[in-house]
UniProtKB/TrEMBL annotation:
UniProt catalytic activity: L-lysyl-tRNA(Lys) + a 1,2-diacyl-sn-glycero-3-phospho-(1'-sn-glycerol) = a 1,2-diacyl-sn-glycero-3-phospho-1'-(3'-O-L-lysyl)-sn-glycerol + tRNA(Lys)
Membership in a protein family: Belongs to the LPG synthase family.
Gene Ontology biological process terms, A to Z: lipid metabolic process; response to antibiotic
Name used for this protein in its record: Phosphatidylglycerol lysyltransferase
PANTHER family: INTEGRAL MEMBRANE PROTEIN, PHOSPHATIDYLGLYCEROL LYSYLTRANSFERASE
GO molecular function terms attached to this record: phosphatidylglycerol lysyltransferase activity
Classification via NCBIfam families: flippase-like domain
Membrane-spanning residues: 41-66, 124-146, 152-177, 228-255, 261-284, 305-330
Originating gene: mprF
Length: 344
């Protein structure tokens, strides 16, 4: 990690502590401790297991994609990738640092940068596609509830969905309308040469062109592997399902055993969509506010509501960053790509 990343990580931890402290301003500490001591730790353990399965299944997806191209890629190295992604998603605005961090982590194992970029983009397409599918289902189930309770938040949810859908459409255009997409990107980029030096503009345009070509080549190669793609889509569906179920099991741990699993899970899907719109790393502030506002109707006790929010945030945000810090100090194994001499 760079010095700047360490500073941002420290800042996000301090901001998280400040947000938790503000949420607890009207709650007696003794009441919070009493609520925590009396939670059902078996159900909370299931929530922890869901987060571990979320990370573990993403590692399985990484291994499936890499092993299709390269032999000898270990599951230990596959586990490093989602962990590193969680860390850098958590310390960069709009989770923008996760993709570059994954690329560097794969290159550290000996995977060629071009192949790694293509694989990560393909994984991103599948992940975004399943987010859109899950969101559409959740929107049908829970949008009326959010609209009744929080009008502004409901439109934020729709706006978030529009952005995710636009990303998917853009990637699908690269896959199926390669030449048209390159021309369209060139047109969109052209005005930028008015504000940039010629050498820098040409370098940027060439880099984007190269990435489009690389992703298109990978999509053509993998389009004939229907079984592999179906396997990845199914794994991604369950990966996201485990993540979306976390608040439900936290509610069971707090004694709300009559919670509707479908509605609670749908609400979490919509919360995740809202979080993606906040520019602050990890959606800090917006995530906590959205959770409290949406789940206030389900959790009557104010102290338990705040405790549920804290446990949810610790699991879905800070735990991921902790695994990323561990992954950063784990030395990766090295793979040798087919056709390369073994002494390289």
């Amino acid at each position: 990690m760079t010095r700047r990343n360490k500073w941002v990580l420290t800042l996000m931890l301090l901001l998280g502590i400040a947000i938790f402290a503000y949420s607890l301003r009207d709650i007696k500490f003794s009441v919070l401790i009493n609520d925590f001591v009396h939670i059902n730790f078996w159900w909370f353990g299931v929530a922890v297991l869901c987060m571990l399965l979320y990370l573990g299944l993403e590692a399985v997806i990484v291994k499936v994609f890499i092993s299709d191209r390269i032999e000898g890629f270990s599951f230990k190295d596959a586990l490093r990738i989602p962990a590193v992604e969680q860390l850098f998603n958590g310390i960069t605005p709009f989770s923008s640092g996760g993709q570059p961090a994954q690329l560097i982590a794969l290159m550290q194992t000996g995977v060629d940068a071009g192949k790694a970029s293509s694989i990560l983009l393909m994984k991103f397409v599948v992940f975004q596609s399943m987010i859109v599918v899950n969101f559409l289902i959740a929107l049908v189930i829970g949008f009326n509830y959010i609209q009744d309770k929080l009008h502004a938040l409901a439109w934020l949810v729709v706006f978030g969905f529009t952005i995710h859908l636009a990303v998917i459409i853009g990637l699908l255009m690269v896959m199926f309308w390669h030449a048209f997409t390159k021309r369209a990107v060139a047109v969109v980029l052209y005005p930028m040469h008015w504000f940039m030096k010629r050498e820098r503009y040409d370098r940027m345009a060439a880099n984007i062109d190269s990435k489009i070509d690389s992703f298109y080549a990978e999509s053509v190669r993998i389009s004939g592997k229907g079984k592999l793609m179906l396997r990845v889509f199914v794994i991604t569906f369950f990966q996201l399902l485990f993540y979306y179920l976390i608040p439900y099991f936290i509610m069971l741990a707090l004694g709300y055993t009559t919670a509707n699993i479908v509605m609670v899970t749908s609400m979490h899907v919509l919360i995740v969509m809202v979080i993606s719109l906040f520019p602050i790393p990890g959606g800090s502030g917006g995530a906590e506010y959205s959770f409290e506002m949406i789940f206030r109707s389900y959790i009557a006790s104010n102290s338990k509501l705040v405790l549920a929010m804290i446990l949810w945030r610790l699991l879905t945000y800070y735990f991921g960053m902790l695994t990323g810090l561990v992954a950063m100090v784990v030395k990766p194994d090295k793979v040798v790509e087919e056709g390369k001499p073994t002494n390289l």
